[in-house]
């Protein structure tokens, strides 16, 4: 069983983002980048399936400029077997990425695709669902547990009020929630080994996908700051302020 | 130009977020219709028909819509593109699961979690954990949107929309629900509550989380929330998580107890009207966004607060 795991290179989650002074975008110059945390969880899950003897091959795929090879090498160091970079210097929006992944899946014929549920840069939470639609396959989003069966996968999903378990016909697309697993750290020997693993490069044109953006983004701005930081002396002072100043309690 | 809001419901009532999505649809211009799809959901359709601003409710009943799965529902919606210019749903797990699937089926780039409508094709949405707001213009003829409910007022009642029966689409039989562990709570729903009491890593244990916070939540009629750290540590269930990847809340009063205030947590609550932080570390980032910061031991401060409130 082959598993495909898309990985996105994003701004590191610890970095405080800054908007460019002209409001034309977010300043990404000299900012630390990393693999999207939800995609790391996806890689980890795929590697665990391989370690459990369920998956036979784990293929990491990234779409973006050549520097995305770094993210693919990280996935390889975590245990993916090989990688595919769909190289493009154009802006790739989620719908375009879903189409590129669909083209890759048409070639690779995976049984399972495991995506992160959202990327922490655009917070779109769309690509996995769109890929499932384009493949005309079922989707198990926001997964906190996967159990592979014969021709089926049971996915426990995080929904309002608790958990829901769905059974999907394979092939299927899964998106990972935070508590699916805790990803391992890449060890130095595995980082070295990852450098020798195969990494194939293709392009949107070679895959026959039109990646022209449908959405235009402008007027990037920071939201209004909260005027916080006031301290209260004690509990009595707090209750007095909530009652008489903020008037939020009776 | 007509917008269709896809309603999440429990057959009898609409879930929180639908009334806000109806408001957002109204701002996009034109008429607003609501789709209620499910099995035995005429009660929910009647509730939708009473929403102010809704001129028509589509009621579509079939057993394969009962669980709200995206596969069959998105396929049904994709047959309605000649009637609607906008498709909207609240940005809940239901809406987030469904709308991108619809977008891809009809070759439209969806726009997630809009917080403002600036025109039929112009919207504002947060990115980077809410640290940046961006204007998004769509070049697609049809718009597919999820709506952040806390950014829109709820449509009122008193409406009298017609209810139209919509023939069901096929059962695609790709996916079925085989189990549910839904916790029934007497407390208000987290995203709709007027007051939220949230606990973080500082609670120390699941037992403390409940023992310390429940009396306060009871006294204030509050929903309980948690930071990611508290959920990861097993102090509170998954769906209590407030933050970038959890629930987005904007109550009148948010009380953060033993929460340091990582930006991912702030992303989920910083639009609350009044924020109270109880944390022994005076330099914890939560204090910077709090209207009222109480520096002290939560195990003393919270019971004292309950007492002071007369609980």
Provide a concise account of the structure shown.
The complex is a heterodimer of chains A (250) and B (311). With 250 residues, chain A is α/β, with parallel strands linked by helices. Chain A is 28% helix and 29% strand.
Question: Mind summarizing the main beta sheet of chain A?
Answer: 9 strands, mixed
Quick check: average pLDDT of chain A?
Answer: 96
Poorly predicted regions of chain A are none
Q: Kindly report how far apart the N and C termini of chain A lie.
A: 61 Å
Cα-atom radius of gyration of chain B: 21 Å
Largest sheet of chain B: 7 strands, parallel
SSE pattern of chain B:
EHEHEHEHEEEEEEEEHEHEHEHEH
Counting DSSP H or I runs of 4 or more residues, the number of helices of chain A is 7
Instruction: For the record, give the distance between the C-alpha atoms at the N and C termini of chain B, rounded to a whole number.
Output: 53 Å
Estimated structural class of chain B: alpha/beta
Regarding quaternary structure, how should these chains be classified? heterodimer
Assign the CATH superfamily of chain A. Answer: HUPs
By DSSP, the count of extended strands of chain B is: 16
State the share of residues found in helices of chain B, binned by percent.
25-40%
Morphology of chain A: globular
Largest interface: A-B, 81 and 91 residues
> Could you list the spans of chain B in which at least 5 consecutive residues all have pLDDT below 50?
none
Supply the number of structural domains of chain A.
1
Determine the strand fraction of chain B and express it as a percent band: 25-35%
The CATH class label of chain A is: Alpha Beta
Question: Which structural class is indicated by helix and strand composition of chain A?
Answer: alpha/beta
């Amino acid at each position: 069983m082959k598993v495909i795991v898309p990985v996105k290179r994003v701004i590191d989650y610890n970095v405080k983002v800054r908007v460019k002074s002209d409001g034309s975008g977010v300043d990404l110059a000299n900012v630390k980048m990393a693999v999207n945390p939800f995609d790391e969880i996806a890689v980890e899950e795929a590697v665990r399936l391989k370690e459990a003897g369920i998956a036979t091959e784990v293929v990491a795929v990234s779409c973006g400029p050549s520097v995305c090879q770094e993210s693919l090498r990280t996935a390889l160091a975590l245990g993916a077997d090989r990688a595919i970079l769909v190289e493009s210097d154009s802006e790739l929006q989620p719908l375009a990425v879903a189409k590129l992944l669909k083209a890759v899946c048409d070639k690779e014929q995976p049984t399972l695709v495991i995506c992160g549920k959202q990327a922490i840069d655009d917070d779109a939470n769309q690509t996995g669902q769109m890929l499932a639609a384009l493949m005309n396959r079922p989707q198990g989003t926001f997964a906190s547990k996967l159990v592979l069966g014969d021709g089926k996968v049971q996915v426990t999903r995080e929904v309002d009020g608790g958990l829901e378990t769905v059974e999907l016909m394979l092939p299927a697309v899964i998106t990972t929630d935070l508590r699916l697993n805790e990803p391992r750290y890449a060890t130095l020997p595995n980082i070295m080994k990852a450098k020798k693993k195969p990494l194939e490069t293709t392009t949107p044109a070679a895959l026959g996908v039109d990646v022209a953006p449908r959405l235009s983004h402008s007027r990037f701005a920071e939201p209004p700051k909260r005027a916080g930081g006031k301290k209260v002396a004690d509990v009595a002072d707090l209750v007095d302020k909530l009652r008489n100043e903020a008037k939020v309690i009776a | 130009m007509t917008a269709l809001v896809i309603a999440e419901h429990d057959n009898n009532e609409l879930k929180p977020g639908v009334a806000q999505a109806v408001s957002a649809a109204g701002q996009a211009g034109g008429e607003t219709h609501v789709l209620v799809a499910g099995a035995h959901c005429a009660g929910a359709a009647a509730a939708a028909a009473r929403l102010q601003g809704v001129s028509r409710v589509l009621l579509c009943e079939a057993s394969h819509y009962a669980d709200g799965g995206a596969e069959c529902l998105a396929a049904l919606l994709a047959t309605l593109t000649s009637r609607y210019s906008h498709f909207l749903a609240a940005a809940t797990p239901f809406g987030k699961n469904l709308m991108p699937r619809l977008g891809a089926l009809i070759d439209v780039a969806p726009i997630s979690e809009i917080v403002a409508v600036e025109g039929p094709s112009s919207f504002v949405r947060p990115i980077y954990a809410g640290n940046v707001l961006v204007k998004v213009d769509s070049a697609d003829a049809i718009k597919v949107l999820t709506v952040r409910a806390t950014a829109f007022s709820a449509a009122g009642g008193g409406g009298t929309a017609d209810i139209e029966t919509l023939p069901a689409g096929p059962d695609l039989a790709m996916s079925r629900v085989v189990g549910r562990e839904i916790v029934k709570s007497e407390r208000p729903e987290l995203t709709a509550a007027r007051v939220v009491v949230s606990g973080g890593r500082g609670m120390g244990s699941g037992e403390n989380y409940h023992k310390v916070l429940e009396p306060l939540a009871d006294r204030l009629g509050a929903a309980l929330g948690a930071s990611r750290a508290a959920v990861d540590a097993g102090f509170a269930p998954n769906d209590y998580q407030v933050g970038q990847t959890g629930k987005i809340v904007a109550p009148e009063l948010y009380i953060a107890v033993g929460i340091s205030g990582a930006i991912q947590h702030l992303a989920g609550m910083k639009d609350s009207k009044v924020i109270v932080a109880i944390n022994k570390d005076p330099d914890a980032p939560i204090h910077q966004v709090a209207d009222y910061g109480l520096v002290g031991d939560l195990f003393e401060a919270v019971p004292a607060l309950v007492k002071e409130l007369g609980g």
